[in-house]
Amino acid sequence: MNFRISKRVFYNALSVVSRAISANSPLPWLSGIKIEAKKDELVLTGSDSDVSIQKVIKADRNDAFFEIKEEGSIVIEAKYILEIVRKIDADELIVEVVDGSLTKISGHSAEFNINGMKASDYPAIDFTMPTKQIEIDADVLLKVITQTSFATSDKETRPVLTGVNFKCDGSILECVATDSFRLAKKTIHVNNTQSFNITIPAKSLGEVAKTLERDEKVLICVSDKKAQFWIDHTVIQTRLIDGLYPETSRLIPTEFMYELTLDARDILNAIDRASFIKSEGISIVKLSASQNEIVISTKSQEVGSSMEKLQAISYKGNPLEISFSGRYVFDAVRVLNGSVVKLEFSGEMKPFIIRNVDDESILQLILPVRTYS
After folding, report:
1. Domain ranges within the chain, ordered by starting residue
2. Model confidence pLDDT, tens digit, residues 307-334
3. In CATH, which of 3.40.50.300, 3.30.70.120, 1.10.287.130, 3.10.150.10 is domain 2-121?
4. CATH code matching the domain that covers 252-366, chosen among 3.60.20.10, 3.70.10.10, 3.30.465.10, 3.30.559.30
5. pTM of the entire structure?
C-alpha cells in the first residue's frame, strides 16, 4: 500500500472514524483504524462492535493532494496514527507499508515507522445498506437528537431505556426518550411510506450529531438489527437495542386544569440560581402558582432555602403547588429552544407537560416529586 494525501483531509477523516473506537477494546484490532487504499478511493473504518464508522475519500485525478500509488490495506492503532498525522508539519503526507505490517508515514522532513496489524484479521463489518430508508435534513435530525437523547436512562437495568425509540408510520416519525421519570417526544413529517419501530442507543446518536453539517441531507437506513446514517461519504452504523419499547403515549395527559406561560430565560435562571440547594444530592424545586404570583422555592435542612418570584406571561387555573427535579425541568426548557414556554398541569401529583409555544413538534414530560413540608 502506498498513497499520497493532503494532511488536512486525512486527519479530518481519521478524526471522524476514531470516534467509534473504544480506548478499552478487548480486541486489539478494534483499537485501530482500518485503512484500505483502492483504485480510486481511500476507505477508513473504525468500530467498537456496537458503533462502526466508515469514511470514504474519493480520488480526483486532477487533485495532486490525493494519489494512490499502490493498493493495499493495514490496521494502525488509532491513538498513534492520529498523533503522528497531527504532529507532522507538512501539507502532504505519504503513507506506505514497507515491510509486512511496518508502515512509514512521512511528510516534509519528518518520517515515522509504526507497526500496524494485518487488515485480514480485522473483524468483518457488514455495511450493506438496508432497504427501509428515509431522508431527513441534517438540521432536523440534529434537533431530534438534542431534544430527545438527553432524557434517556444512563442505567443498564432496563437497556431499552438507554436509547431513543424511532417509530415511523407512513409520513410521521415519532422519536421518544424516557428514563421513566421524564420523557421527551419529537414528531416530524417525512417523505416516506415505510413503517418501522426501532430503538437506537443514545451513545450512537451522539456520534451522529457530531458528524452532522447543517446544510446537508442524511439518509437513514434501518433493518431489524442495525441502523445506518449516511452523511455525504460517511456512514455511521449502529446496532439496535433489543426489547419492546414501552407504550409511552398513555402516559401523556390530554386534559389540563392549570396552565402557566413564562419567559424561558426567567425560569431557567431561577432554577439555576436555586440549584445549589440540594437535599440528598438532588435539587428539588417547588412551584407555587396562582393568579397573584408565581414563586420558585427550594429548601434543605442541611443547606438552607431560597425563594424567587417570577413574572408570568399568563396563568390559568386555581392555586397550585407542585414539586419537581430542578435539573429535569432545566434540561427540558433548555432544549426547547424557545423564548416562551408553556407548562400544563393536570394535578399536584400527576405528570406535567412543558412545550415551546412556537413549536408543537416537541413535548417534554416531567414526573412530580412528593415532598413533606
Report:
1. 2-121, 133-245, 252-366
2. 999 999 999 999 999 999 999 999 999 9
3. 3.10.150.10
4. 3.70.10.10
5. 0.90
Residue 240 · residue 224 · CB < 8 Å: yes
Asked, colleague to colleague, whether 2-121 and 133-245 share their fold, the answer is yes
Q: Give the closest residue to 149 by CA, choosing from 182, 188, 105.
A: 182
CA 318 – CA 326 distance, rounded (Å): 23
The class (CATH top level) of 133-245 is alpha beta
DSSP 300-353: ETTTEEEEEEE--SEEESS-EEEEEEHHHHHHHHHHH--SEEEEEES-TTS-EE
- Alpha carbons 259 and 255: distance in angstroms, whole number: 11
Listed in sequence order, the residues at least 6 apart from 35 whose beta carbon sits closer than 8 Å to its beta carbon are 1, 42, 43, 44, 73, 74, 75, 76, 95, 119
Q: What is the pLDDT of residues 145-164, one digit of tens each?
A: 999 999 999 988 899 999 99
